[in-house]
Amino acid sequence: MTAVIETEQLSKRYGRKTALSECTLRVPAGQIVGLVGPNGAGKSTLLSLTCGLIAPSEGRIEVLGAPPAGSAAQLARVGFVAQDAPVYAGLSVAEHLTLGARLNPSWDRALARRRIERLGLDPAQKAGRLSGGQRAQLALTVAAAKRGDLLILDEPVASLDPIARRAFMHDLLSFVDELGVSVVLSSHLLSDLSQVCDHLVVLAGGRVQVAGDVTELLSVHHRLRVDGGGLDGRLPATARVVHTERTVAGSTAIVRSTEPIPGAERADLEDVGLAYMMAMEAQR
């Protein structure tokens, strides 16, 4: 499958602080890719490198087969919504669309106008007076109407209420179906990502902990209750315990195994993501 983002040993340092370390990834085209990790994991750094906003300290990155932001044509192929869905508070909804049309040669006026009407946004309303969900939808509209090949969203729903988040995710699925665009969606809300993403990348401690097709990842990760005897003798020889969590109700292990494990349940996406993040946190 064609890759929209490909990195090899990609690293970014700010002085003595390493934000991203030896990141090697191949992000497939035509999918919604969930990028998850705790605060400070390196998610925003990776997305900023992808957009060409910053340069790597080491390693290689290609976006849509070329260096990120290497030309005007390359920039036109990538839409980006940064954290908090930034819009210009002093500009009206209509002025955002006018600005988008002037800056983007492939601007889809019909798409932008249709979405604004469907969302019930007043074209004369200043963006600074919109709700958080409306601002996020306006930012998504501007990015999508650019009609690029890749849409990058850096935690656009983090500050939204559950209803607004669900509406945003629903519209994201519609964009993928209508435009055939590839999407990379960064979030720490695994429950939201489980509704939409086809591919998962888990970052923690500035490193990739696991990456792959969601269906394949779920097929090899299992949730297993740990009794007093532990896991000795219960796991196939090739199995690996990713993380064990102890609670008042008992202990539960997330195990990676291509072989079936008697008594285990299939882990969900939240189980998988949290297990790798917590395993990394336990090592620090």
From TrEMBL:
<dbReference type="GO" id="GO:0005524">
    <property type="term" value="F:ATP binding"/>
</dbReference>
<keyword id="KW-0067">ATP-binding</keyword>
<dbReference type="InterPro" id="IPR003593">
    <property type="entry name" value="AAA+_ATPase"/>
</dbReference>
<comment type="similarity">
    <text>Belongs to the ABC transporter superfamily.</text>
</comment>
<keyword id="KW-0813">Transport</keyword>
<dbReference type="Pfam" id="PF00005">
    <property type="entry name" value="ABC_tran"/>
</dbReference>
<keyword id="KW-0547">Nucleotide-binding</keyword>
<dbReference type="InterPro" id="IPR027417">
    <property type="entry name" value="P-loop_NTPase"/>
</dbReference>
<feature type="domain" description="ABC transporter">
    <location>
        <begin position="5"/>
        <end position="230"/>
    </location>
</feature>
<dbReference type="InterPro" id="IPR003439">
    <property type="entry name" value="ABC_transporter-like_ATP-bd"/>
</dbReference>
<protein>
    <submittedName>
        <fullName>ABC transporter ATP-binding protein</fullName>
    </submittedName>
</protein>
